[in-house]
Amino acid sequence: MTAATDTPMVELKGVKKRFGALEVLKGIDLKVDRGKIISIIGPSGSGKSTLLRSINNLEEIDEGRILLDGVQVNRPDLKGLAFERHINHIRQNMGMVFQHFNLFPHLSTLENVTLAPRKLKGMDAGSARELGMELLERVGLADKASVYPSALSGGQKQRVAIARALAMRPKVMLFDEATSALDPELVEEVNQVMKRLAEEHMTMLIVTHEMAFARDVSDWAMFMDGGVVVEENTPAHLFTHPDHERTRHFLRKHLGNQPQTQPHG
Amino acid sequence: MDINLMIDITPLLVKAAWVTLDISARGLFFGFFIASALVVLRTSRHLPLRWLARGYISVVRGTPYFVQLLLVFYGGPAIGLRMDPFTCGVVVGAFNIGAYMSEAIRGAIESVDSGQNEASRSLGFGRFATLQHIVLPQAAGLMIRSIGVLAIILIKNSSLVSIISVVELTYQAQRLIGSTYKPLEVFTLSALMYIVIIYAVMGLVELLYRRATRYTFL
User: Sign of the C-alpha dihedral, residues A176, A179, A182, A186?
Assistant: First the structure.
């Protein structure tokens, strides 16, 4: 399949979303190529989280099109069970990592990772265990396989959550402020895991408040405010000499006069 | 206190206590299914079904158990609803406790963090699979204690079925008083038996609760 390689992995065309009378996404266009990493920054209420959640339909959009590897995600033509089946299938190809981890507290770390491949892909217990251990190894938590989430630190929980999302072998990973709820000293371990994923050419969309991380890891950066993309560019350009006053203002507030390498929550 | 009498009547009261347990356990068992059905109806997409469930719950909560029992046992035959006293006690108990239990189950399901649902859906699980693998196992722990409280209420309420002459603990006690004229001894003994039953149930509930929520202690 050579044709597939020029299809963007994720594509948004004129995406609009309203909550009641409030329009939170006012026509967003976006293309993420295979293996690329894009960071979305912006003040709270800018619509960046809603945008990310729209991609796997946790928020249903009102207008526009969302495509994953050329397949349309939102399908206003499908109703009820037909849409359920469609979206459940689509979501298996997208991993999502949440701000508050949302690990399943009644399952061990390993079971958190293996539940989806076992139940959704019918993987047998042995192979699932092997896969789960391999993924926990990758996030540095193989020794925690049998403990329950309540015994993990925030950073460890988020690393397990990343492993859980990877277990379905997704084509793309969505990170919704993955480090915002963490104590500052735990941020780095999660960032390390994300960096390693980046080196393995996982396609990633990252909504973050961490400017330094966004600048270091991404291929493209997008600044959103008030439901629109104010500007987008290479991180080198966007973070050092942004074109718009709103972007400059936002970055001044978030980078302040701190050294730019220090993570900022 | 006539201790000898108390020793003499103990076997009879123990036998009757089993009937109390039996009628309550059956009521709880069927009540759980009625409660589950009510939860499904209450969350249905169809408004009349939601109304039906809510109306039913309101009627049960708004009337005394005693009246419900008398209504079904004495009023039932007029509309072809004829049951022996024991069956009637089980059925009315189940329908009564089911209404309360549906609230306990619904509350437990609703108090599972919505992030759990989102995480499950984002992996590709459907609504039903999410309920099955993620929400219900967590809700189970949250509902066990409230169901335990209801079980105890059901056991205590079962003393009322003596009025339709089910030979359970309270009915047997009244019968023994009729022949011995010793209400203090007989009722003291039967009260003790209720305490034993109820504390045994409480212990069991606590055990089940710990098992179901083991993951939070580890």
Answer: positive
Q: Which of A68, A169, A160, A73 is nearest to A109 (CA)?
A: A160
Q: What dotted CATH number matches B3-212?
A: 1.10.3720.10
Query: Minimal CA–CA distance to A9: which of A66, A48, A63, A54?
Result: A66
- A89/chain B closest Cα distance in angstroms: 6
**DSSP 8-state secondary structure symbol assigned to residue B159:** G
Return the sign of the alpha-carbon dihedral for residues A78, A83, A86, A92.
Answer: positive
Q: What is the pLDDT of residues B186-198, one digit of tens each?
A: 999 999 999 999 9
Model pLDDT, residue A32: 95
**What is the residue extent of each domain of chain B?**
3-212
**A153-189 per-residue burial string, b: 16 or more CB within 10 A, e: under 16:** ebbbbbbbbbbbbbbbebbbbbbbbbbeebeeebbeb
Q: Check pLDDT > 60 for residue A239.
A: yes
Give pLDDT, residue B15.
94
Of A56, A105, A148, the CB nearest to B122: A56
In chain B, residues with a C-beta closer than 8 Å to the C-beta of A102 are 113, 115-116, 118-119
Torsion angles phi and psi, residue B190, rounded to 5: -70, -35
pLDDT of residue A5: 64
Per-residue confidence at B85, pLDDT binned at 50, 70, 90? Answer: very high
Q: End-to-end CA distance of chain B, in Å? A: 50
A234's tokens: 């290479």
- Note which residues in 144-163 of chain A have CB less than 8 A from chain B: 147-151, 161
Do A54 and A17 meet the contact criterion of CB atoms below 8 Å apart? yes
Mean pLDDT, residues A112-132 taken together? 95
Whether A103 and B125 lie within 8 Å, measured CB to CB: no
Cβ of A151 and B118 within 8 Å? no
pLDDT at A6 over 60: yes
Which one of B119, B126, B216 has the shortest CB-CB distance to A98? B119
- Helix, strand, coil shares of chain A, percent, nearest 5, are 40, 25, 35
**Residue A2, pLDDT score:** 44
